[in-house]
Each structure stands twice: as structure tokens, then as C-alpha cells.
């Protein structure tokens, strides 16, 4: 977090650079988090601003190609001036709302993993019933049966965890870091495994773009990193458990 916002002549002036900013090249406005008090850092020194993309000094330099169709942008801020009315929330208090929004995004990813995993399982089961090798359908192979059973059990657990987190959020619970981290890790790692097995089960068909399997395979590899890598979420879960115990 190196982008700065300094108070000058009654306005805020932003300078810095951001990378991996999704959809910045066509968004009408950006939510920019900048350091307003370097000494306080995340404890009262970060502020959010609403910045119109067409504001002088806002430069979307390029889209960053990735392994999927997800192409975030690199954005530069050169003496970008904004008014007090464009401060989002309170000055210096951007960190907690930012974390809360990330928790919602993690639940969104978990929900998307749930839907994609269900589709992958449907495709695997349909293909396993139709594809015959050495006189027997793939569905008769114990390995394929294990893939299907493990995937279905994992999907059931993922749905329950995601719905539990969403229920707590809807009820007004402000801290769902444990629940959202758990849902995101379970969802992305389950989908990664099922996508790999579905691709393997389809053989050469799984490699081609006639089917969406390879797309899901690449997409979930991104999801295991964006909105916090799985390793970071495990640290978050462990710290909360060590501090407060098991939350039930």
C-alpha cells in the first residue's frame, strides 16, 4: 500500500500506482485506497476515495494478461485531485470496511465455485455413463466412482458452509473472516480437484475448447490467489482459533 493522498489547499492529491485492478479500463469510477497517515498505517492511516475514471491524472496504462480471460489493469495516479465529498467513509478508516468487502467477495467466489463444481460433476457423470473402454463404461471404474462420490460430498459441505456464512452476514454479523475464509478455501480447492478429475476423465476432449472444462481449470487457479491466497486464509483461520477457540 504505497499510493499516497496528501491534503493540499483544501483538496486531496493522490499519487501512486495500482496493479491487478479488475475492470479498471471500463469502470465509471474507482474506489482508491491510499495512505493518508504513514505512521498509523492500517490502524487509522488509510482512506478510501471515490474517483471518476475520467479525472485528470488517472491513467489506465495497460491490461495485464493472465492464464484466463481475467485481465486486470495497471493504473497510475499523477496528482489526481479530489474533494472531501469524495472520501468514502471516514478519513483514516478504510482498512476495516475494505476487509469486510473482501469477506463478501470471498463468499461470492465460494458460491461460484459451488455452481461450477456442480456443472463439472454433471459433465463427468454424463461422460462416464457414455464413454466405454475395454467393454465397460467409465462409470463402472472404481477410480471414477471415487471422483464422483468425493466431489459430491465436498460440494454438499461447501454449500452448507457458504450458506452459513451468508446467513450470518444477512443477520448483521460484522466479522465473518473465519466463515468467509473457510468457504473460499473449501470452494476453490474442491473446484480445482473436481476440474482436474473431470478433465482427466474426458481425456483429449477435456483439453479442447469445445467443452468448458479447460476454462474452469484455468479460472479456479486464479481464484485460489485473488481475494487472498489459500495460505493466507489458513493463517487467518488458525489465528482466530488460537485466539478465541472453535466458533461453535
From TrEMBL:
Top-level taxon: Bacteria
Keyword Oxidoreductase: yes
Domain Acyl-CoA dehydrogenase/oxidase C-terminal: 98-242
Names of required cofactors: FAD
Keywords recorded for this protein, A-Z: FAD, Flavoprotein, Oxidoreductase
Start and end residues of each Acyl-CoA oxidase/dehydrogenase middle domain: 2-80
Segment forming the signal sequence: none
Pfam family, one: Acyl-CoA_dh_M
Assigned protein family: Belongs to the acyl-CoA dehydrogenase family.
Protein name: Acyl-CoA dehydrogenase
Species assigned in the record: Blastococcus brunescens
